[in-house]
Design brief:
By secondary structure, the protein is α+β, with helices and mostly antiparallel strands. It contains six helices and nine strands, in the order ββααβαββαββααββ. The strands form three sheets. A five-stranded mixed β-sheet has the order 4-6-7-9-8, covered by helices on one side. Helix 1 runs antiparallel to helix 2 and helix 3 runs parallel beside helix 4. The structure holds adenosine-5'-diphosphate. It comes from Pseudidiomarina gelatinasegens.
Length: 261
C-alpha cells in the first residue's frame, strides 16, 4: 500500500541472521505534517496584517506630508488590521484553551435561551449592513455544559450565516427539542458550499475561498473552534448545503446533558 509509511531497521540477530524491524509511522508523520502546516498558517495569517501595518507606519514617519484624507484612511486601515490580528490571537487562544481543558466540566447549568438573547443582539448589530430577515425560534431548554464554549459555537454559526449570505437574505435560528435531544440550527439562503468542501470546513484554517486577502473570509478557524467545543459536549457539527440555495449548520445535544424540567 502506498499510503503507509514504514520506518525500517535491520539489526544483527545471530552470526548469520538479521532482524528486520518495521514500524508504521504513518500517523506520526501525518501529525508532524499537521503541526508544520499549523505553524505555517499562523505565520502567514499574522504576516499579512503586519505587512500592511508596517507599510503605513513607514508612511506615517512624516505625517505632515500626508493629505488629511490619506491620514484618516491610514488610521482606519491600521485599526482594521489590528482587529484582524486580535481576532486571530483570540481564536488561537480559545483553541488552545480547549486543547488543555479536556476534562468534563459539566456541573454548570447553561441557560441557553438567555445566552441566545445576547447572540441575537450581536447578530442584529452585525446585520445592519446586510438587512437580512433574522428569525429566531428559541425554546426554553437549558443544558449542562461550558458557557464560553457554547457561546462561541452559537455566535460563530450565526455570524457566518450573516456574513456569507448575500444582502436581504433570510436566516432562521432555532433551538428546540428533537425527540429526547436538543437541537440548535442555523439555516440561511446564502451561496451554499460545494460538496467537496463540506467535509473539510471544520479543519483549522480551511476556507472555501483560498485568497487570504479576500474581503469575504476570516481566518478559517471559526468552524474548527465550533467542532472542538461540540466534541467536548459529545456532539458534532452537521452541515447540509446546496450550492445556490443555502446552508444549514446544526447539531444535537444528547439527552444526558439536557436538563429535564
Ligand atoms: P472563516 O473565518 O473563514 O469564516 P470558518 O471556519 O468560520 O472560517 O468557515 C470556514 C469556511 O466555511 C468559510 O471560509 C466559508 O467559505 C465557509 N462558510 C462558513 N459558513 C458559511 C455559510 N453560512 N455559507 C457559506 N459558506 C460558509
Amino acid at each position: 500500500r502506498e499510503d503507509i509509511e514504514l520506518e525500517v531497521r535491520i539489526m544483527p540477530y545471530s552470526d548469520d541472521q538479521y532482524l528486520l524491524m518495521a514500524r508504521d509511522v504513518t500517523q506520526l508523520k501525518q501529525l508532524e505534517q499537521m503541526r508544520k502546516d499549523f505553524v505555517a498558517n499562523v505565520s502567514h495569517e499574522l504576516k499579512t496584517p503586519l505587512t500592511v501595518l508596517q507599510g503605513y507606519l513607514e508612511m506615517l514617519d512624516e505625517p505632515a506630508s500626508m493629505p488629511p484624507a490619506m491620514l484618516t484612511k491610514a488610521v482606519s486601515d491600521m485599526q482594521g488590521q489590528s482587529d484582524r490580528m486580535r481576532n486571530l490571537v483570540d481564536q488561537l487562544l480559545s483553541l488552545s484553551r480547549m486543547d488543555v481543558h479536556r476534562t468534563d466540566m459539566f456541573e454548570r447549568v447553561v441557560n441557553v435561551p438567555s445566552m441566545l438573547e445576547t447572540v441575537k443582539n450581536d447578530a442584529e448589530r452585525l446585520n445592519q449592513d446586510k438587512q437580512h430577515t433574522l428569525e429566531f425560534d428559541i425554546q426554553p431548554i437549558q443544558i449542562h455544559g461550558v458557557e464560553d464554549e457554547l457561546r462561541s459555537v452559537f455566535s460563530n454559526l450565526v455570524s457566518n450565516a450573516i456574513h456569507y449570505t448575500q444582502p436581504n437574505g433570510v436566516i432562521r435560528i432555532t433551538w428546540k427539542m428533537v425527540g429526547q435531544d436538543a437541537e440548535f440550527s442555523v439555516q440561511d439562503n446564502g451561496p451554499g458550499i460545494p460538496a467537496e468542501h463540506v467535509g473539510r470546513l471544520t479543519e483549522r484554517f480551511y476556507r472555501v475561498d483560498k485568497d487570504r486577502n479576500s474581503k469575504k473570509g476570516g481566518s478559517g478557524l471559526g468552524l474548527a473552534i465550533v467542532q472542538q467545543a461540540l466534541e467536548h459536549h459529545h456532539s458534532r457539527l452537521q452541515i447540509d448545503s446546496v450550492v445556490g440555495r443555502g446552508s444549514r449548520f446544526y447539531f444535537r445535544i444528547s439527552e444526558e446533558l439536557v436538563i429535564k424540567k
